[in-house]
Amino acid sequence: MLVGEFMGWNFSVGKGGAMGSLIACWVIGLLYTCVAMIDSEVTSTVAAAGGQYAQAKHIMGPLMAFNVGLYLVMAYTMLEAADALVVGDLLTAVAGEMGHDALDPRPFVVLTIAALAWLNYRGVLMTLTVNFVITAAAFISIVVLFLGVQPWHPGEMLQHRELLTDLPYGWIGVIAAFQFGIWYYLGIEGTCQAAEEVRSPARSLPYGTMSGIITLLIAATMTWYVATGLLPWEFLGQAATPLYDAARVTGVPALQVFLFIGTLFAAIASANGCINDASRSWFSMGRDRYMPLWFGAVHPRYRTPYRAILFLIPIAVSFAFTGLLDQVITFSILSGLLGYTFMPINMWMFRKKWPLGTIRRGYVHPFHPLPAIVLLLLCITTYFATFLGYGTQLLAMMCFYIVASLWFVFHRYKYVRRGDQFTMPWSRPRGY
Fold first, then answer.
1. pLDDT tens profile 264-304
2. Residue 197 banded pLDDT, cuts 50, 70, 90
C-alpha cells in the first residue's frame, strides 16, 4: 500500500503546514505500529479469510463482525477509487505536457479497475506476485528521487531553510493534519485478508505486517523530506501527485520519468491490493450469510471469490467518477478509522477470553495493554481531526453505518448460522 507516499498524504500539509505534516506522519506512524502489533497477534491465531471481520466474528459477536466487515469493504473500495482517480489524473496531466488536448480521465479509470479486477478474477498468486514487483519498483523510485536531490548537499536542490515555516494554523492545524497522515499507511492491515491463501499464516502474516509497517515508516519520512524541500507548502497541500510534481521541479528528466513510473505503479498496486482485500471481506460475509449466500461462491477453476470481485467493480467506478479525490480519500479514511477503533476492544477481549498459554499464537505483541490504549487514544484524536475539516462527511458515514446495523439486526441476522462460524480449534473461552 505504498500509494500513500505518492498522493493523499500531502493534504496534511494544507491542514498543518510542512512541520505539522511531519508531526502527523510520525504520530500516525505510532498508531499504525500499534495496529500492526495487535493485528499480528490476533490474525496469526485467527487464520481465516476476512481479516478483522473473522476476528470480530470469533471474539466479539455477529453485530460487531458485520460492521467490521462493512468497514473493510468500504475502506478498500474507496481507496481503490482514489487510486484509479490518480492514474487517470496522472495520465491526462502527462498527455497535456506533451502537447495533446485535454483528455477525459474517466476511460483510464474504468480501464484500470477493469484490468485489475480481471487479474484478481484469475487468481491470488498472480495478483499478489504482480503487486510485489510493481510495489518494489515504486519504492525504488522514491529512493532514486531521494538520492537524486542530493540530501548530503542541502541548499543545492533542497531548500528546506526557505520553504519550511512555523505552524501556519498552530497546534489545531497539526491535529487536523492527523486525518491525512493516515494516508501514508492506510491498507497495511490488509495483509491478514489472505490468511486462508498463505502456506503458514502463523509465520507469514506477522512477518508481512511488521516488515510492511517498517517499510512504510521509512518511505513516509523520505517522502516528506524530499517533497517539502522542493515545493512550497501552499502548493504541496493541494497537489494531486506530489512526488511527481517534486520530480518535475528538479529539472532532471530522468527523475521525472522515474517518478511517473513510480506513481503509476504505486496507484495500480494499491488498487490491485484493494480489490483483493475488499472482495475477500465481502466473500466472507456472504459465506457466513451476513450478506446473501450468493456472494460466498468460489470460482471452480481459479479458486477466487469471483462474484464478490465483480459486484464491487461498479461501486468503485461510481465513486471514482466523482473526481473528488479528497472526498473519496476521506470516506476511505473514516471507514478504516472505525476499524482501528474496534481493534483495542478486540485485543482486550481476546486476551481476557484466551490468556497467554491457553491457545497457540504465532506472534505475541509486547507491552499489553499499552499498544491498545495508545491506539484507542490516537483514534479518538483523529476523529476530532476529521470533524474539524470534514464534519459533514463524518456524520454521514456514522449515519450510514447505524442504518446498516439496524438492517442487519432486524432483517439479515435471522439467516446467520452462528454455529457454522467458529472454525478455529480453540479451547472454551475463560469464563464461559
1. 999 999 899 899 889 988 998 999 999 999 999 999 998 89
2. low
53-60: long-range contacts at Cβ-Cβ below 8 A with a sequence spacing of 24 or more?
53/281, 53/284, 53/285, 54/195, 54/284, 55/346, 55/350, 56/342, 56/346, 57/288, 57/421, 58/421, 58/422, 58/424, 58/426, 59/346, 59/349, 59/350, 59/353, 60/342, 60/345, 60/346, 60/349
pLDDT at position 198: 73
Q: Which of 362, 378, 6, 79 is nearest to 210 (CA)?
A: 362
Domain coordinates of the chain in residue numbers?
2-416
pLDDT over 90 (residue 124)? no
Determine the Cα–Cα distance for residues 231 and 182; give it in Å rounded to an integer.
21
- Contact, 54 vs 46, CB < 8 A? yes
Question: What confidence score (pLDDT) does residue 96 get?
Answer: 77
Question: pTM of the full predicted structure?
Answer: 0.89
30, with CB counted inside 10 A (0-12, 13-18, 19+), is middle
The dihedrals phi and psi of 153, each to the nearest 5 degrees, come to: -120, 70
CA 103 – CA 97 distance, rounded (Å): 12
What are the start-end ranges of the E strands in 344-383? none
At 206, the amino acid letter reads: P
Does the pLDDT of residue 194 top 80, yes or no?
Answer: no
46 Cβ contact list (under 8 Å, min separation 6): 54, 55, 58, 59, 195, 424
φ, ψ (nearest 5 deg) of residue 359: -135, 160
Band (pLDDT 50/70/90 cuts) for residue 49 is low
Burial of 110 (0-12, 13-18, 19+ CB in 10 A): middle
pLDDT for the residue numbered 144: 95
**Residue in the block written with cell 505486517:** 209
Distance CA 25, CA 30 (A): 9
What mean pLDDT is predicted for residues 367-385? 95
Helices marked H in 98-182: 106-122, 124-148, 160-163, 170-181
Give the number of other CB atoms < 10 A from CB of residue 26: 14
Fold of the domain built from segment(s) 2-416: Amino acid/polyamine transporter I (1.20.1740)
